[in-house]
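Appendix C. Worked example: NADPH-protochlorophyllide oxidoreductase
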Amino acid sequence: MACRDFLKGERAAKSSGIMKENYTVMHLDLSSLDSVRQFVANFKQSSQSLDVLVCNAVVYLPTAKEPAYTADGFELSFGTNHLGHFLLARLLLDDLKQSDYPSKRHHCWLNQYDIIGNTNTLAGNVPPKANLGDMRGLAAGLYSGDFDGAKAYKDSKVCNMLMMQEFHRRYHEETGITFASLYPRHIPLFRLLFPRFQKYITKGYVSKDESGKILAQVVSDPSLTKSGVYWSWNNNSASFENQLSEEASDVSKARKVWEISEKLVWLA
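Step 2, the predicted output written as structure tokens:
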């Protein structure tokens, strides 16, 4: 369990009935590239195997009118939701390659808010819409123009979806690792902001327990091993391959975001 808060991690494991000998809590703050690198070093020293990587950390500040920044000087949503996960996945790729897990699955779970960054959905068309533009601000890890916390979050989700596909194109055939994202229909903050809209119009609300079961299903279900897929669930709890928006499936844009991200996290 990679967590910012040891005590919260311990409490979560205990409340789930996980025996102490079956989990290890390790510190990881995805808003800090140094923390990501230190976590990877600690993990490798632990001699544990890595079979599945679930990326689920998120910063969501929808009412923010001024940007906040990471310790590395990046806009907080972009730096945490995208760059932190990108660096983590890149640095752990070799460990995933060595896994003897039956299907060699690597899951970038891009968390439960992906749908609002996907503009071919009803929720994704709620203003402000995700749009990476000419990516000049992205290349600096900053935010160009008037800041909107909700748009910054949505843009970071577009980066996540683009990177899932780019990981798939670059590494799936060579390694056999599955790269996928999912949207389990669970948007907890929307219960505060848009409860009736979410429950009765988008039908996007499910319980925490159900969203957890969906995550476990993607990790373990042999029918969900296809790589490069954005999984969703309908109201009957049946999985399907969701379609990404033009913005979130642009191959040339994905390549450019990858190259920019490599430079920002000092991998290129």
